[in-house]
Amino acid sequence: MIGVSPSFIFSKYTTDFSVDDYIDSLSSLKELKVDCFQGEIFKRANIKEWSDNASKLAAAYKNFDLQMSSFVAHFLINYTKDFNSLFDEACFDEIRRVCELVKYNFVEEHLFK
Q1: What is the tally of structural domains in the chain?
Q2: Which of 112, 72, 70, 62 is nearest to 95 (CA)?
Q3: Which of 7, 37, 44, 106: CA 20 to 30 A from 26?
């Protein structure tokens, strides 16, 4: 399996990319004979956009016979700056939101069995 990281998206759209930017890039991935890609929320402010458009993205990449191999919430890096940050209640809330997004919209059901 050959895939790409979000750097593929960054190089086209900077870190201000949207779900629609990901969708627009899918045909390029297919042309490059890529099998999968890594999804990412770069900014916390984009969680709602990803939640609202997750099924649209999933339908689009499945239409291209592509897979999302992993999903990264880049903004969570802020909670790894020191030991206490890892146990900040906000960290748990953010991780929970991202996990729900991934669980219900991107990952095949058999991965949770």
Answers
A1: 1
A2: 72
A3: 44
